[in-house]
């Protein structure tokens, strides 16, 4: 363990000078740096990157096409095995209808997310993406990730690179980067023994980045990994990012304990989460955006993350079914996210998938009046009737 004076020197180097910190230094900061000093250093780095004081949010909808999955991750409350009576597949008309509702509410992005259905190969995704793009060309398809690609390529019997090229040609814009969970072998095998390895997940992302398909990188904390393994997850991502530059953002969130085989035996606390956000901002000198997650840790923690290095609060989430099945009950709406950002002392802005500012809410008098842009956690239709 390093002495506090050593830790301050590391914080000063990262914050004041913008120097790179090592994984060992990141671990020492994560476990031992005083919380406020850690947050101050991360906020300094955030301010240097974004001197305009803007923090962003997004309007998108997560649409799940099936809950049928052969991968049976132990932390997952969403999937059903192929023969389950509770398994379902949404047909394309329903998916398109949901996209239409999202467009009507001002969404700029759709995140398609689903299980590893034993019959869904590349052709299934080509059809779906092409149909969505034809009907709603303005929507950005920020969807899927390395796990889905590995699965669809296997079902279709084609190389991963060919699968990525084909779904890109059909309309995929970028990968959402789910399925990273924790990339380190020991804890990953413990919670998702049938999923591809962390190295393979990164390899597929590297291939995608090489083909011009950028992504985000995620981290699900709290399933029993050690502190050192948390930092190792960050290191694995940073090393790939040094080669590709294709990760637009890092998005940590916390494992939710309900309705899954892990039964919440371990969980990350809010403080662990906030410390990780701060260390991520200091460690990722090569990743532009750090996203705070209000969905799994709550709105207060989401707001606090803006003081710990985060520059983005993610989406209003017009629909979310996966994390909420495991117990995440936080809901928000557009006006509330704007308020959370503003009362954190920052200027709220709606962004698109590329983090371009679409609307800067620099005057509360001009805040949007539409109160229908609200989080929904159900697969039912949204209420679009006039109030
Ligand atoms: S996390 Fe994804 S891959 Fe794992 S069981 Fe759930 S739906 Fe399947």
Please give a handful of descriptors for the protein shown.
TIM Barrel; three-stranded parallel β-sheet; binds iron/sulfur cluster; 15 helices; alpha/beta; 12% strand; 387 residues; four-stranded mixed β-sheet; disordered C terminus
Word description of this protein:
With 387 residues, the protein is an alpha/beta fold. It has a single domain (20-382), classed as TIM Barrel, CATH 3.20.20.70. Helix content is 42%, strand content 12%. It has helices spanning 4-15, 23-32, 35-49, 92-104, 122-135, 146-156, 160-170, 185-191, 198-210, 227-244, 270-283, 294-297, 299-305, 322-325, 334-342, and strands at 54-58, 60-64, 109-113, 140-141, 215-221, 247-254, 289-290, 312-315, 347-351, 357-360. The protein has a 4-stranded mixed sheet, with helices on one face. Bound molecules: iron/sulfur cluster. Iron/sulfur cluster binds next to loops.
Task: Briefly characterize the structure.
With 387 residues, the protein is an alpha/beta fold. It has 15 helices and 10 strands.
Strand segment count: 10
Shape: globular
CATH topology: TIM Barrel
Strand content: 5-15%
Topology:
Layout: H1 4-15, H2 23-32, H3 35-49, E1 54-58, E2 60-64, H4 92-104, E3 109-113, H5 122-135, E4 140-141, H6 146-156, H7 160-170, H8 185-191, H9 198-210, E5 215-221, H10 227-244, E6 247-254, H11 270-283, E7 289-290, H12 294-297, H13 299-305, E8 312-315, H14 322-325, H15 334-342, E9 347-351, E10 357-360
Parallel strand pairs: 1-8, 1-9, 2-3, 3-4, 5-6, 6-7
Antiparallel strand pairs: 9-10
Helix pairs in contact: 1-2, 1-3, 2-10, 2-11, 3-11, 4-5, 5-7, 6-7, 6-9, 9-10
The protein binds iron/sulfur cluster.
């Amino acid at each position: 363990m390093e002495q506090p004076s050593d830790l301050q020197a590391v914080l000063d180097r990262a914050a004041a000078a913008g120097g790179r910190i090592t994984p060992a230094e990141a671990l020492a900061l994560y476990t031992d740096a005083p919380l406020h000093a850690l947050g101050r250093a991360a906020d300094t780095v955030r301010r240097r990157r974004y001197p305009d004081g803007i923090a962003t949010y997004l309007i998108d909808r997560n649409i799940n096409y099936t809950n049928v999955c052969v991968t049976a991750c132990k932390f997952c409350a969403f999937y059903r095995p192929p023969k389950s009576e509770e398994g379902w597949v949404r047909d394309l008309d329903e998916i398109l209808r949901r996209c239409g509702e999202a467009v009507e509410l001002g969404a700029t992005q759709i995140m398609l997310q689903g299980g590893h259905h034993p019959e869904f190969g590349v052709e299934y995704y080509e059809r779906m993406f092409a149909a969505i793009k034809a009907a709603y060309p303005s929507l950005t398809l920020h969807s899927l990730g390395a796990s889905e690609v590995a699965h669809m390529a296997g079902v279709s019997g084609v190389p991963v690179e060919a699968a990525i090229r084909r779904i890109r040609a059909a309309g995929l814009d970028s990968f959402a980067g789910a399925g990273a969970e924790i990339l380190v072998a020991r804890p990953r095998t413990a919670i998702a023994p049938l999923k591809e390895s962390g190295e393979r997940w990164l390899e597929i992302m590297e291939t995608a980045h090489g083909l011009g398909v950028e992504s985000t990188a995620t981290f699900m904390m709290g399933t029993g990994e050690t502190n050192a393994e948390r930092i190792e997850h960050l290191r694995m991502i940073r090393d790939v990012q040094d080669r590709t530059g294709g990760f637009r953002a890092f998005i940590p969130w916390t494992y939710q304990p309900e309705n899954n085989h892990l039964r919440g035996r371990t969980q990350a606390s809010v403080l662990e989460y906030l410390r990780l956000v701060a260390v991520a901002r200091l460690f990722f000198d090569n990743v532009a955006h750090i996203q705070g997650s209000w969905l799994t840790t709550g709105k207060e923690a989401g707001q606090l993350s803006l003081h710990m290095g985060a520059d983005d609060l993610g989406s209003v989430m017009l629909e979310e079914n996966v994390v909420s099945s495991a117990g995440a009950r936080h809901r928000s709406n557009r006006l509330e996210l704007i308020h959370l950002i503003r009362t954190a002392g920052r200027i709220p802005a709606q962004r698109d998938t590329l983090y371009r500012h679409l609307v800067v809410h620099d005057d509360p008098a001009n805040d949007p009046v539409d109160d229908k842009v609200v989080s929904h956690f159900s697969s039912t239709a949204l209420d679009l009737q006039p109030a």
